[in-house]
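Researcher: Please translate sequence to structure tokens.
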Amino acid sequence: MPELWPLLRQVVIVAVPLLLALTLHEAAHAYAADRLGDPTPRRAGRLTLNPLAHLDAVGTLVFVLTRMIGWAKPVPVNPSYFRRPRQGMLWVALAGPAANLVLAGAFALAYHLLASAVGAGVRLGLPVDVWLFLVSVARAGVIVNLGLALFNLMPIPPLDGSRILAGVLPGGAAAAVYRLERYGMVLLLLVVFSGALDRTLYPALRVAARAFLGG
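Model: Translation complete:
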């Protein structure tokens, strides 16, 4: 049992940041689509900050196990409601990672404030272990949100980055990107298990984490 404690502690530390990250990511997609005139997310009950409306059990479990890769239930979007469908999808896709970056900034602010309080000996009647736990949660919030933002910005179907790329490419090239979506999961698995993330995503995450957390 003692050997399980570090894993359980890590799960508890990551739980709240992960819940917020996935919920805000999908809710941002839904709100962006709604603002651009698509009623589909509202009709599907996705125009909400209720985590139960967005979380996918398997995707959440995968994130807990890998500490990097995970997903929530995709928000249904009908681009035919947009005045300019490809550009509309670009903004909807961008909204999710943007929400994670904003949340990463909020967690970074909390991290610096809490770390400063611990360094200054502030206790407010709480044990130092509680303060250190909150610092760990805030730090995890930064890393989780940066990880999700960077992962989803990769231009691989069905990630948000592929829709952003399609939104800026000429029509023919954009159509080719959309056609790749049928092979999206295969492409994603190839990227994950080929070690490509070790050479691309993880270094970028380390740089971004240092920028937000310092050191």
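Researcher: Any highlights?
Model: DSSP finds ten helices and no strands in the chain.
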